[in-house]
Amino acid sequence: MKRRNILKSLFAATMLAGSFCLPALAAVEVAGVKFDDSIKVAGSELKLNGAGVRTKVIFKVYAAGLYLTEKKSSVADVLATSGPRRVAITMLREVSSEDFGKAFMDGLNNNTDKNERTRILPQTMKFGEVFAQIPALKKGDQLTLDWTPGEGTQCYLNGKKIGELMPDVAFYNAVLRIWLGEHPVDSDLKPALLGGK
Known about the structure:
The chain is an alpha+beta fold. The chain contains 6 helices and 11 strands. Helix content is 41%, strand content 32%. The relative contact order is 0.16. Keywords: Lipoprotein, Membrane, Signal, Transmembrane.
């Protein structure tokens, strides 16, 4: 009888321990950064579409994850997604805001045509002002860019809102093309965000 109770207790403890491990199994780890398999943005559940590392020369700069309402494997489908979206970035090294802002602008300019750049210029300038407020992005800092339909693009640093809402979806799509466009900032990161290996 006593042995049966011990076995029951062990079984219960094992099941309980296993239940605590479930969220960890659902997360994807990239360069030591965990990306949850699903998150909530604007009341909608988003799924991790893909995650990867931005490398410059030999240095790992940041880990990035793309969240969508449902998984997509083509750039056109990602850009056409109608629901909320999130790009989550965790810095793997310190980068000055000037360098990060320049890389952002280079990526934007390399993946949008002149007419589109003109159309989104006011929002691009507002976004540039966000980086002017931050001296540097430090290792471990988390930058998130959320798109909420009917509202716009909101930027967060370590969970705190920074900058103003940018209302045009064309701006958010231009930002996504920094990583997903024809001339992505990192040719290995693009397929990773699209769910490839």
